[in-house]
Amino acid sequence: MYRTIRSTAYEPDPLNGPWQEESHVLRLGEDLHTELTRMHAEAGGDRARPDRLPVRQLNFLLQALAPGVIATGRRAGTDGSLPWLYARETVPPDVLAPLIGTWAAR
After folding, report:
1. What is the rounded CA–CA span in Å between residue 78 and residue 52?
2. Could you give the percent of the chain with pLDDT greater than 70?
3. Domain ranges of the chain
4. What is the CA radius of gyration of the chain?
């Protein structure tokens, strides 16, 4: 069907200025980090790293099911003050709460 692959690129028009998008940053927060860490430890979590939350699966879940989430921060599971979610718009708590609850219950 296609015998040739051609690369393409998008180049913004310099006459219209730089391409900028505002993103909203959400941090896990110390209180939520502490509570989730406690729950994880009680469930028999990683004993070698009791201070670290295994948020990789939660990050995948949020990117798939929370509208507007475009990226997740690195090492957010180790420190509640680090940037965690980057989104095009504010992610409502009523969207985040059930997803975090589902992840925490597993």
Report:
1. 5
2. 89
3. 22-105
4. 18
Q: How many helices (H) and strands (E) would you count in the chain? A: 3, 3
The Cα-based distances of 33 to 66, 67, 101, 105 in angstroms read: 20, 22, 13, 15
Which strand (E) or helix (H) includes residue 99?
A: helix 93-105
CA distance 100 to 97: 5
pLDDT in tens, 21-72: 888 888 888 888 888 888 777 777 666 665 667 788 888 888 888 888 888 8
pLDDT over 90 for what percent of the chain? 2
Residue whose pair of structure tokens reads 């992840």 in the numeric block: 103
